[in-house]
Specification:
225 residues, alpha+beta, endopeptidase fold (from Nostoc punctiforme), 51% helix
Length: 225
């Protein structure tokens, strides 16, 4: 009986040891996995940075207000320009705000497309010197001689680089001073072309560049006592 008890105890101890040996790997794996999960979870949580939305400051509000005011000012400024200014700003490739002489562009618009007629001075037909003389008289209040040659003789001579809006430009198209136009800016001038009538051309165009002689600035006649 005593031996039987010792054998039972031994078997029990042996069985318990065996079960523990078999169960140990599973326990170890679970512990490792649990440790990795904890480490990964901790690393993930540590990497998160939660920030609150920045509170609006007076400076931010002020900046937004200024931007809004600037946009409103720009919109208001655009509305003050006429369709005529926009049209000629595109034709001359300049900023619309630079076209301040509306009287000049209204006068040009009135004559635009009028056919060329040698010796003519009406809307049925006009030549170059009559056209330049009409513009100068109606816009600037000055009276010019009738011919391009005489207009050239009564102007202060200018190089291309010195030209300003309202100056005259003279060309040699058939010997001597034979053509005249009115300078508008950015290289453009308006004139009565023999081929297409009243139009706008540019001094950089090959034909006009070769034919250009001089610019001419108008002078106000001295008043007699």
């Amino acid at each position: 009986m005593k031996n039987f008890f010792l054998v039972s105890v031994a078997i029990g101890i042996f069985s318990g040891t065996t079960l523990s040996a078999k169960a140990q790997p599973s326990v170890n794996i679970e512990q490792v996995n649990a440790g990795l999960a904890q480490k990964r979870s901790s690393k993930f949580i540590e990497g998160i940075e939660i920030k609150g939305a920045p509170a609006a400051t007076d400076k931010t509000v002020e900046t937004g207000s200024k931007k809004a005011d600037n946009k409103n000012e720009e919109a208001a400024a655009i509305e003050t320009f006429s369709s005529l200014q926009f049209k000629y700003a595109q034709l001359l490739n300049v900023d619309v705000e630079s076209l301040t002489n509306l009287t000049l562009f209204k006068e040009i618009e009135k004559w635009m497309g009028t056919r060329y007629r040698y010796g003519g001075a009406t809307e049925k037909g006009i030549d170059c010197s009559a056209y330049s003389g009409t513009l100068v008289h109606n816009v600037f209040g000055l009276v010019l001689p009738r011919t391009a040659r005489d207009q050239y003789a009564n102007c202060i001579k200018l190089d291309k680089e010195e030209l300003q809006q309202g100056d005259l430009v003279f060309f040699n198209t058939r010997g001597g001073i034979s053509h005249v136009g009115l300078y508008l800016g950015n290289g453009y001038f308006t004139h009565a072309s023999t081929s297409i009538g009243v139009t706008i051309s540019n001094l950089s165009e090959t034909y006009w560049s070769k034919k250009f002689v001089s610019g001419g600035r108008l002078t106000v006649p001295e008043q007699c006592d």
